[in-house]
């Protein structure tokens, strides 16, 4: 399992494969977990989710961008997504990754790209979530949030439970709308828990802390053990349903997504779309090699 995870995470960061895949269209089964390659397809998917009582957080796929032109293109695309969310009046907000907007090129360049995005989203009352990436980009991401949140309050971020120091971060961002996840990247032992049991324990502590704090909490997991625990916890502590939501990725555990809606919980699906799908898809395979069955199904259905 460890070796398989490392293998897919290494592939997810392979620049040559990431670039090549942009020209392939959605392949290898990615079409099951990526909601199309353009805005029209994405909006159609969001409308379907909304009709089922599910809101969406839209990710115009892209990460680890090293060329200014590519980062500027990503910015324009995200601005177009914001416009489309507004024009179609769908129930959706934005998720983005700072490395897609040039964090590795220059901090200030990325800051200005983000400022433009947040300004436009703010005009339309649309929330923008800063996804958290690998450890090397974590502090610069928090620095960006600190600067931008001085001017805007439509920003939130993600806390990754595998880091030993995540409780300090959740305390620092206690007044923000936060998504809490286990963590998707490969991090060394001196920074992050490696065992599922330790990650799960810390994950629960973080979720409970933020829920009790009264700020909006997005519990982003496919793990029914965690979800069941949260259901009990919110009941015991009388935490109102409008103070939290469950989130899952597009294409995963659809029955459970609908079941939670049926039980009256707020639910938000993470909707990735676009040509830059390879890294995202490889991380999904790293998390759960059973996802390889998605590939098999796609191949045999052809
Ligand atoms: P896992 O630990 O992968 O699974 C636990 C158990 O749940 C499994 O053993 C199995 O019993 C069950 N299970 C899981 N998946 C399935 C399935 N498909 N079908 C049936 N049973 C299943 N990571 C980041 O680092 N940064 C981010 O910004 C970020 N954003 C995210 C946003 C969303 C909406 C989600 C859902 C995840 C995000 N992640 C992010 C990824 C996250 O960190 C985890 O890597 C990922 O969610 C896998 O962990 P898990 O909590 O789903 O459960």
TrEMBL record:
Superkingdom of source: Bacteria
Coiled coil spans: none
Gene3D superfamilies associated with the record: 3.20.20.220
Keyword terms of this UniProt record: FAD, Flavoprotein, Nucleotide-binding, Oxidoreductase, Proline metabolism
GO molecular function: oxidoreductase activity
Associated pathway: Amino-acid degradation; L-proline degradation into L-glutamate; L-glutamate from L-proline: step 1/2
Pfam families: Pro_dh
Residue ranges of every copy of the Proline dehydrogenase domain listed in the record: 44-293
Catalysis performed (reactions): L-proline + a quinone = (S)-1-pyrroline-5-carboxylate + a quinol + H(+)
Enzyme nomenclature, EC number: 1.5.5.2
Cofactor(s) demanded: FAD
Keyword Flavoprotein: yes
InterPro entries: FAD-linked_oxidoreductase-like, PRODH_bac_arc, Proline_DH_dom, Proline_oxidase
Protein name: proline dehydrogenase
Organism, scientific name: Siminovitchia thermophila
